[in-house]
Design goal:
Elements (H helix, E strand, L loop, with lengths): L14 H14 L5 E2 L11 H10 L15 H15 L9 E4 L2 H12 L5 E6 L3 H9 L3 E6 L10 H5 L6 E6 L12 H14 L2 E5 L23 E6 L12 E4 L2 H11 L8 H11 L3 H24 L3 E2 L7 E5 L7 H12 L1 E2 L1 E2 L10 E5 L4 H9 L2
Parallel strand pairs: 1-11, 3-4, 3-5, 5-6, 6-7
Antiparallel strand pairs: 2-8, 7-8, 9-10, 10-13, 12-13
Length: about 375
């Protein structure tokens, strides 16, 4: 018998991979399931982006292996995007690395910087992939608490009480997923100071900055941030290009070179047409963001209505692609609650517990659902 690697004993199949099989089975049985669980944009990219991608696929070099570092014009446009929206100056030649979605960057960064036994600070609640990848590379997950009382931001006094001697890397994600709390420059300044003090690489995962957010910021705006920080970003949510798999990691050249060593051994470059389409997307202006946010604002208002129907409380000022809601006190299990709603009302909502133990008592709604479907969901109650 051929056994799997021991590292697989520490991780499970991604929650949505398992749960969506159940949802698909219900749909196959004719049940009218409304999926409010996953954050996969149902809106389309700008027509000019698709047009540029299609045209590029007729070029002679479109079907060759591409550079591991992406097209120079793609890196240049990523640099322009950060300068325009964040005021951050980046060298397109050595401080930007395009990725096939920012999710692969989590693995690349972990492989580039973590040794077996190194410790990693991971937010609770937070994106489950941080912990899964940490375990896969045989490092150790050390969860740090985020809670409503502290506005879902790191408690630095509490962090300082831990033994940090083995900590090599810290994951943060602001705007925060799943709660929708926005970051602040002051909080990023504290994170950078914390990273410098303890020689910890701070990685901010930043894919939600422009969704329902009037004040997008980057951790790289902080003076001296490049010395201890990287930032991941993505076109998936901002430009409705989730299936295109276009992301980026940004930071000082030495860090980027380390990530590139890993990446260059794991793929053979991003499809040419997709890169050309991404260049066009990054050029889109204020009108694009306003148009998208007008749609999401209407959906969020309806989701608030649904949350109220369920006697949940929520933050009206949250940003990003989700609504994080607190269950009424009589419900002690988020998963039991969402299963009750799924099987009785044919509505799938994400339980807060998949993001960590501090997600117990909360649920998360996705805004990637049409107004008509949200109204239908409301009517079922």
């Amino acid at each position: 018998m051929i056994n799997t690697a021991n590292r697989l004993n520490s991780v499970q199949e991604y929650y949505f991979s398992r749960k969506l099989r159940e949802v698909r089975q219900m749909l196959a049985e004719g049940k009218p399931v409304i999926n409010m669980g996953i954050g996969s944009p149902d809106l389309t990219p700008h027509s000019s982006v698709v047009e540029v991608m299609n045209e590029a696929m007729h070029e002679a070099k479109a079907h060759e292996y591409q550079s591991y570092q992406g097209l120079p014009e793609l890196r240049n446009e990523m640099a322009n995007f950060y300068l325009k929206h964040f005021g951050v100056i980046l060298d397109a030649n050595c401080e930007i690395l395009p990725l096939m979605g920012s999710k692969e960057g989590i693995m690349h960064i972990s492989l580039a910087f973590l040794n077996e036994g190194d410790e990693v600070l991971i937010p609770n609640p937070g994106y489950p992939t941080y912990a899964a990848v940490t375990e896969l590379v045989q490092a150790k997950s050390v969860f740090y608490d985020l809670n409503e009382q502290n506005d879902w931001k790191p408690n630095f006094e509490q962090l300082e009480q831990n033994d940090l001697t083995k900590v090599k890397l810290m994951w943060v994600s602001y705007p925060h997923m799943p709660t929708g709390v926005n970051g602040t420059i002051q909080m990023f300044e504290k994170l950078i100071a914390f990273g410098k003090k303890h020689n910890i690489l701070i990685v901010n995962d930043n894919p939600y900055s422009f969704i329902l957010n009037n004040h997008p910021i980057s951790i790289l705006q902080v003076n001296g941030a490049k010395e201890v920080a990287l930032e991941l970003n993505s076109l998936s949510k901002t430009f409705n290009m989730a299936g295109w798999r276009v992301g980026m990691v940004l930071g000082k050249s030495q860090f980027i070179e380390a990530v590139l060593k890993v990446k260059s051994n794991m793929d053979s470059g991003m499809l040419y047409g997709i890169q050309k389409g991404a260049v066009e997307a990054l050029k889109l202006g204020k009108d694009w963001f306003e148009q998208q946010n007008e749609i999401y604002a209407k959906r969020r208002k309806l989701i608030f209505n649904l949350a109220e129907k369920l006697n949940c409380s929520f933050d009206n000022n949250s940003v990003g692609l989700f609504v994080w809601a607190k269950l009424p006190n009589e419900y002690t299990s988020s998963e039991a609650f969402i299963n009750k709603v799924l099987f009785e009302k044919n509505i799938f909502i994400t339980p807060g517990t998949i993001f960590g133990s501090n997600g117990e008592g909360y649920i998360r709604f996705s805004l990637c659902v049409t107004e008509e479907k949200i109204i239908e969901a409301i009517s079922r109650f």
